[in-house]
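Worked example (supplementary).
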Amino acid sequence: MTTPLPYRQHDHAHCVEHALADAREICKRSGARLTPIRERVLQLIWQSHQPLGAYELLAALSQDGHQAAPPTVYRALDFLQQHGLVHRIASLNAFVGCPHAGRAHTGCFLICQTCRNVLELTGKEISAAIEQQSQRQGFRIDHVIVEISGQCPACQQAAANS
Amino acid sequence: MTTPLPYRQHDHAHCVEHALADAREICKRSGARLTPIRERVLQLIWQSHQPLGAYELLAALSQDGHQAAPPTVYRALDFLQQHGLVHRIASLNAFVGCPHAGRAHTGCFLICQTCRNVLELTGKEISAAIEQQSQRQGFRIDHVIVEISGQCPACQQAAANS
DNA sequence: AGCCGAACTGTTATATTGTTGCAATCCCTC
DNA sequence: GAGGGATTGCAACAATATAACAGTTCGGCT
Ligand SMILES: [Zn+2]
Ligand SMILES: [Zn+2]
Ligand SMILES: [Zn+2]
Ligand SMILES: [Zn+2]
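After joint prediction of all chains, the assembly is encoded as:
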């Protein structure tokens, strides 16, 4: 078994470039305006695979010399969420970049409690099971949240070696 | 298809009685103290199948004539969660009684955005799919959140008839 | 019964997260 | 270059959750 992204070393600059390029393309196609603030917030979120809180983003914007208040950040986050560029992790009150932006998917998040990195799965098995069980109850689905907290393979190994 | 609980009329007093009796039994067996505050909070939560926020509980306790501050409620909620008597719904910042207290299960919540009622599923299909996908990534699971927002059968029917 | 330590509760203050409302500005279109 | 919608700046506020510490209650023990 190879440790999956993002739980191992990788060329993260590539993740960021890819995410930003995708974002520009997606916004262009849908006629949405990826303004400097929005792009900067997206870039900040993609600093790592660890979700960032709104007020952490706010602090980072202030460090830029950019005057910013909470609504600035929340509005940018709303925009990015609406266009599928970031996801909110409800159990952390934090936001993470979506590696599958543009492709239809139901996020399913593996959250390592040790290194804080988050992996977004897209396998159909889980969403299929959820749809089946909901349908059995006659329930019409709008939105699904699946957040799995635990320990990633890298951190398990690190813990075992100590 | 019959509309499932809690989305149809039912003898809810029975739900409450059952939940409280279960809670007393579970606490007795584990040597935990179901104090008056804790029991009252549990009873308040079971007023309905709609999740209650901590500050709604706080207001209700105050109406009792009980002087209460946020820590009172949060401590009671912590206790009830630790003993599996209530669940926190992360997407609502609210708490709902667990109808399967005492039995090992991974909650999976169907949240009606119209009537606010929440049904907790316990089918194994979803958790099995989650465990399988996590294992495939080498991820060790601590805790799983599945929250499905949408519309319950009763509210779908009501919407169709208008 | 009386004592002790742990658990529980009261109280105040504070931290964290998210929203409302309105004015000013920007950008695209006509 | 005017009109109008989207975006941003800004101030205040609302909602949710926690920290710290003092007082009280409870159950087991002598
Ligand atoms: Zn990366
Ligand atoms: Zn990890
Ligand atoms: Zn009921
Ligand atoms: Zn409903």
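Two points are worth noting when inspecting this output. Residues 74 and 159 of chain A are 37 Å apart (CA to CA). Chain A has one domain: 12-161.
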